[in-house]
Amino acid sequence: MSNKKKTTTAWRHMYLKLHDGPVMVDETLTMESDLLRRFYESEYHGLLSLKIKNSIYKKVIEFCKKRAEIRIQHSNSDNDEKVLQDKLKDFDAEFIKQFYQSNDENAILYLMDAACKLVITSLLDLLLDDIVEIISRKSPEDIKNFFFVHYNGNDRLFNNMKEILTLTRWVLK
User: Fold this and answer.
1) Is the pLDDT of residue 162 over 80?
2) Can you point out the beta strands (E) in 5-50?
3) Which residues contact 3 (CB under 8 A, 6 or more apart)?
């Protein structure tokens, strides 16, 4: 067997298939995305199919790149962890503010969807409270349409879903 060294350029061969076509995965995205990090570490070469809009993907890339820059910038200094956390918190606040200034709640929902699909915990944590507030203002019909929930007449499935929602009602409070 060969003792080949692991290549550090594996990320250059990984692509995401988005709504508008495939895009190459940026290495900084693997620093924030648990899903892509696992693929990167296993040297996956290929296409991952995710239903994410390109415009939202660009925002996710912007978020991940800036957080990676902040982490790298503070990893080489003698600053303590609190300074790093403060810088990340300041960036997070500025990042989310742009969505409220544009008054686009659906963009926030799509951003949360992308964060879930890519398993970006830092973005999920940032959006959680905002998502709960947005969903609480939406009608059941709007929620159903956004999340593509369709009742197909299966009463057993409907009752199971109803039971799950009853058990997790605290999430929406």
Assistant:
1) no
2) 14-18, 21-24, 46-49
3) none
